Structure formats: C-alpha cells, structure tokens
Amino acid sequence: MAMSFGSTLKELFRDYRFAVAFILLCLLITLAVMSFFAPHDPTLWYTAPRDLPPSRQHILGTTSRGQDVFWQAAFAIRNSLIISAIAGIVSRVIAVAVGLVAGYQGGKSDRILMFITDGFLVIPLFLIIVMLAMLIRDKMNIFTTGLLLAVFGWAWDARVIRAQVLSLREREFTRTAILSGSRTLELVSKEYMPYITPLAFSTLINNMSWAIGMEMTLSIVGLTNMDIPTLGTMLKWALNYQAILMRRWNWVLTPVMLSVFLFIALYWMSVSISEYLDPRTRVQRVGVE
Amino acid sequence: MPAGCTRKGEKPNMQPILETSGLTKVFYRGSLLARDRIVAVDKVSFAMHRGEVFTLAGESGCGKTTVARMILGFEQPTAGEIIYAHNQEKWHPRVWFTQRIQAVFQNPFETFNPLRKVEGYLFETVRNYGLAKNRSDAVELINAKLEAVGLSYGEIEGRYPSEFSGGQLQRISIARSLLVDPSVLIADEPVSMVDASIRMSIVNLFKRLRNELNMGILYITHDLATAYYLGGQIAIMFRGNVMEMGPVQEVLMRPLHPYTKLLRESIPEADPAKRWRGRISIAETEQEEYLRAGCKFAGRCPMVMDICKVQAPETVAVEGVLVKCHLYTKPKEETKEVS
Amino acid sequence: MAAGDVVLRADNLRAHYVLDVPGGQKTVRAVDGVSIAVRRNEIYGIAGESGCGKSTLMKALYAWINRPLRLVEGTVYYTKDGKEFDIYALSKQELRRLRWTFMAYVPQGAMSIFNPVIKIKETYRDFLSSHLKGKTVNEMFEMAKEHIDQLGLPLSILDAYPHQLSGGMRQRVAIALAALLHPSVIFADEPTTALDVVVQRGVVQLLKDIQESLHNTIILVTHDMGIHANIADRLAIMYAGKIIEEGATEEIFKNPLHPYTQFLINSLPQFGDTSERVSAPGQPPSLANLPLGCAFHPRCPMAMPICKERQPEATVSGEHQVACWLHAEGREAEHAAHS
User: Fold this and answer.
1) What chain A residue is nearest to C26 in terms of C-alpha separation?
2) What CATH number does residue B253 fall under?
3) What range defines the domain where residue B130 resides?
4) Structure confidence by residue, pLDDT tens digits, A65-119
5) Dihedrals phi, psi of B29, to nearest 5 degrees
6) Which residues of B touch C196 (CB under 8 A)?
7) Are B140 and B197 part of one and the same domain?
8) Phi, psi (degrees; rounded to nearest 5) at A23
9) Predicted-complex ipTM score
C-alpha cells in the first residue's frame, strides 16, 4: 500500500472526527507556540493588576497572582504538551523494545521480561507515583515529570506489541526472511516494524492523553513543582486562591476547557487513525456516495 | 541407517545429498491432566540424491510438513538424524545449511511480507550470503535467476506482493531460493494454491531445475498425479509413518500397501468415464488415528487383520519397494510349523 | 437421474465490486453478463480458476450482496412449489425464512464456520432451534444424530469441539449442517479445496449421497476439473466473469470447443502418461482491467481479428453452448472468416 502522505491525509480528512481533531490540535499548538512571544516570564507574580475580567489588554483577564491568564495558558499548554510528548515517546521506545525482544526471542528472555512487565501492571501505579513524586518533588521539572510518567506508561503496550510479534513470528514470511539469511535484528526491524509502527503510533496518542491527565492529578494533589506553569498547576493555583468560590471563571475554566479540548482532539485523532489503519472498515466506506 | 532405494538392477552412482535416519518428532497435546502423546513423525528414514525428485506424499496431518520443517531447522527433532552430504560430525551454523538447502512454500501470498517490496528479499539474500560485490552485480544475478523462472527484474522492480498473481509469486519465491545455488530444494505443496491453468508450467519448471541444475528436489504434496509426472522416488506417509517407498512408477502403478491403493484410486481423474467406484468410510477423527496402537491405518483398511490392531508392522522390502504392512511381513506361524 | 424443470434462472447477471482507491474508484467486474438455468435433481458444476468470478456468481445467485459488491444488472428467479419468484424482490424476513430451508450456502473454507468454544452438537441445536419451532432440546439432538448417522459420519463428532476435528471432517460436518433442513438448492463453494485426495473423495461422496436422497439441486463451484468429472451432471466453464462454455459433463470432456476449455482439460496430468503437459500461456486477466472483445484473446493461440473487437455471444448446439468466434453460427461466422 504505497500511498503518498498527501493522499493519506486527504483520506483521513473525510472522517469528521479527524478533521475536527486536527484543527483543534493545530489551534492548541499555535497557542503553545505563541508562548515564545509572551511579554513576561510566567513564573513572575504581579506583572499585571490582579483579578481583572477579560478586556482588550488581557483577553482572558488576570489571575489573583497578577498574571495574564492568556499567557499563562499559553505556557501551560506548551509545558503540558512537552511533558506528555516526553512521556509518550519514551514509553513507546521501552514498550517496543520489550515487546519485540520478548515476542521474538521467547523462552527465558520472554519470561523474565513479562515478569517485569506484569509487575508494573499489577502494582498500584498511583501510590508509587505519589511516593516518588514526594521524594523528588524539589528536583521535578518538565523533563523529570515526563520521564516519571514514561516509566509507568509502557507496561500495557509492551504486552500488546508482544502479542503482535508472536503472531507475526508464525507467518510464512518470517521463514522466507530466515532462508534469505537474515539475522534477528535485521529480521525484526525490516519485517515487523511496518506492523508495529502503526500500533505504536496509535498507542502513543492514548498514552499522551493519559500522561496529561496524570500530570493534572498530581498537580491537584500538590505533588508537582508549582512554579512551572502546566495545565495542572494552573488549575491548582486557581483552586488555592478559591477561584470557584470567588466566581473567577476565567481563571478556573481556562485550563479546564483547554484540557477538555485537548482530550477530545487526542481521542478523536487516535480513534480515526486506528480505524483508518484497520482494513475492514475501509471497505465499508465505499458505496456511501 | 538410511534406507535408500535403488531402481531394479541399478547401482547408486552418487552419494545421497540428503538423508534422514530414524527421524522422529513427538508432540504433546492436551492439558496437564489429560495429555496425548502424538508421534507426528515416527522413525522416518530416506535418502535423496542430486538430479532426482523425491516425493513425500500423504494427506495433511501425515507428518510430511513436519519432516520438512525439521530438515530446515524450524523444528527440533525428538530423535534421529538429518545428514547433509555425509557431513555428520561437524557442527555448522544455520546459514551454512540454508546456503545448501532452500525451500519454497505452499501459500505464495504469505511467502512475502505484504508491506515490503518483493525485490527486498532478493537483495537481502544476495547480501547476506555475499553473492555479489556491488549493486549492479547483484541486479545482474537476480535478473539471471528470474529469467531462469520465466520473469525478469524489470517486471518485479518496485512492486509489492499484492501486485502479482499466485503463480508469479511462486516463481519469484523459486528464483529467490535459486540465488544461493542450493543442492537441495524443498518444495512444500508448491502448486496446490496456484491456478489449475498455470499449475503445470510451475511443475515443468521443477523438472527443468532437476535436469539443468542437477538439483535434488524434495517434493511434498498430496497430488499424486504431479508426483507421477515428475518421476523419481516416492515415500507415502500416513500419520507419521512411511507406509511405502520406492520408484514412483512402481509404487503408483502397482501399489502394494492398501493405503497407497486407496490414495491412487481416490485421485479424481479428469475423465467422466473414470469415475470413482466403491465407497470409502472415514470413521475416525485424526487424533484417534494417531493414538492407535499397532498400525495406524487399521481403522480404515479394507484388508485389516487382527494383528494390525495390536502390533505395528515392520518395514519389508518387496521387489525393490519398501513397504510397512502385515500383508507382506513373513508370518511367524509358518516358521513355527516348519520347525 | 433425469433432471427436472428449471429451479433457478439468472438472466444477464452483472455484479461488480466498487473499490475506493487513491485517485478515484476501481470497478472489478466479477460477474459480467451471466445467464444460466439450473434444473431440479441435478448437480451443476461451475469451473474456472481463482479470480474468474465464480464465488461472486454464487453470492449473486444466493442474494448475498454486501458492499463493496453491487448488483448492477440482471435478475435471479427461483421456482418453489411451481411458482416463480424474483429473489431480489423479497423482503429481508422472507429471504431469511427461505435461507437454509429452501436454499443453503456452504461458503469457501466452511470448516471455519463453527463457533470454536461450543461443541458441534450445540451448533446443530442452535441451527435447528432458529428454524424449527416446538422441539425440545433432546428432540433436536436426536434429529442431528439421525442426520449425521444417515450420512455416514461418525457420531463421535457431535460431542467434539471444532478444533478436535481435522479440516476435512469439519468440512463434511458443515455440508451435513447445510443439508439438515432438506433445502431444494445447495450452493457449495470450493468444498474440496485444501483437502487431501481421500478426504476430498469423502466430501464428494457426501454431496452425492445428499443429492441422491433429497433429489434436490447442488450447484458446485470448484477449479478442480477432476471433481467435476466425477460428480457434475452439467458443467459451465467460467472465464473473466462470463460463462464461456456449458453443457453435459461427458460432452464437455469429450469435445471441448472453447480453446480455454481445451487447455484446462489437456493440461491435467494423467496416470500412466508422463508426456509433456502444457498450460495456457500468460496470465488470467485482472477483472478490473479486462481487454476489449473476447477476454481470452491475449492468450488464445487461435485468436482472430474479430476476437479483439467484439465479445462473442453464446451459440447453442443442442445442450452444448459455447461463446467463441470459432464456433459462431450464421452470419457471424462469415464475418469472422472474412475479417
């Protein structure tokens, strides 16, 4: 199926979910990029008058700490996206490596790796993350937060990838590759990666969603570095300052709505891409016109 | 101890290129509480030579594919030996074997990864076995082998498996295996999934490979008509045992074993005047047949005797053909009466 | 076995697959103008290689059209209790009532239709309970047992799970299931493919037994000419979506008129004869990209100029029809000879 990127994109756009998700993501990423042009350092307080409602100077108003809500949001979305990207990508790398080795080698390596994987699946993640976060709270920055989340996000997908590799191993073309003289590494990368990559990609998006949610949870509980603006910390600050009681909706709702849009966008993107990759649903799309 | 057959009066003029001796494979099926011991391959011994087609024939589930997998190293034998060119002692890495023994499989659409271009496998083979020094030499070599099977490099360049027909894919698969100039080619049901109208062109291709390249071909099939057409030696397998083995003409035209007779009669001939007469009954499931004591064919045999249900028969030689059947073993009662 | 009146009639049937591909649509003309009439109390064979459209023809006759397959043109009439009706004019409920009771369909790879987690007898009971009202579970089990026994299958299969039976056994059980409610028309799509000779013979024997006891119609699709020679009363040869020859089986084998049919029959290896067998040259055409005129002309050694321009109509000489310019009657032949 040698289709060009442009035609693939056109195909995907026929699905309304992908179209909406794509546009939303573009908007959110634009917002994140705008943070590079912010007039103030987001960690500074009192750069603007406190508790102002939305106006021409401050589009979304200001916070009780004297910060422009709009620019805070821009930084928040940027950092949240970076954290979830780190978490997602690092956990994919681990999941793919573990899944490939366990699936193809089998035997002892499989048993050891699955033992470790099952360990990660079974232990109560939340408690461990909370413990670790408490221990290293001072040293937490976006990178460490991302890595922490990555360490706990790979186990499930490692199993999924291992299952795929197990079934690929039994297919005839594996034998053809062996007869062609391929060694393990070459075989696995040339033969299996085209099957694993779409799998890794769709689980990446799910994982990013999870990471954002987890980060927000940790922030609400008070375990992340409050100086770094993320969607979670922004919300936490708002709650700290009783923004709900004081009806300062602009401050509270901004991170909430942004995260809702982000979740919808990521979810719809993941679902539409998975469906697109699944050959059976493609056939049904014919004949609608 | 290899059991090679000779044609009547002929001496073997060369050493066997591939032999098996007492090859056995046992599988265990079932749960922890109730396990069945299935002997998928039971002390199979045969020898094949270069420039000869050796057919391993039988129904599915008779063990012939398991034999092929063991020879290629995809399964470990439970017992017995596989000897290539009398090279018993030295250990070799797998690549050494695959340079000398290659294979073509049944399903041409599964042979290649649908997400990769077919030429990838050809170039990979050239590179991994060091068959060419640079890319243009590689292309020349690949083109030569493709022409040997009736295709050309230009026809396959840049294309995916889905763009070819089953027959073309089988030819490409054969060309790939020819790149290393193997002495033995194992063909596992190579034409059963190919259209009837082009089947013979691929079978003819095997004939040419045998003649022109002096290749030994292990032809695994349940289609006895093409086996007859190719000539050579044949071993008929049933539930893991070699029931009859000998020259193809002898075994198929004058079958000794009742199973061979049944197989021979059951081939649908493309002639309405030669319709099947008589009925068959397949009353046992495959697993039940495998677990039989004595001769595995006793459940279906029209000539079954009491001894067949209890004791497995020995292999006997009858006029140049080896057969495993109580009908041909010398009855012990006779010797008792004499003495 | 005298064949009766027409039970199924198709007129100028056209069924195409419309596929979505980058840059537009691709139309695969799987059934492209087929008109046949199948009679009561006969076995009607449809032969042709894979990709010629025969499975699609079956689906069109059975009114099993799902996207991306579309019925483009034509009608299909069945005759039940003396009355003729258009199957495509029926409502979904009426169609459902007819299925399995009046007409049954055994798809390709029927061995995979069984639910792997329930025993075979449960599948039979399930089947019966959805079509027959007012029977207890035990009565249904008894019906299933009687049916299986009558057809010569071992009773032990009812208590087995599908994976415990071999592919061939499952195929026979699936066919028995299709015949359970005594349908007047049974469609069997490649019932013997991927089975070995002996099991194949068992399947064919089963089909024959069913037809002889029910005196119904069996429409059998397979590429194996040997099977048709053994069981079919009348035979139709299909190529590139059209029926190119049709007639009594003996007649077609004795006197094949269409060059493709001749290739098909002559390329099959026969026992006792190792003379060179030749297949048809070239490849069958892609149904998405058919040549102009007669679809066989690129491969036909006797192609004439007219063959490249116009599609031949079926000409009838008694029961034996053929669509080929070599045998065109009347003025068409004159034109063919002069151009």
Assistant:
1) A286
2) 3.40.50.300
3) 112-181
4) 888 888 888 999 999 999 999 999 999 999 999 999 899 888 888 999 999 999 9
5) -115, 145
6) 58-60, 222
7) no
8) -65, -45
9) 0.81
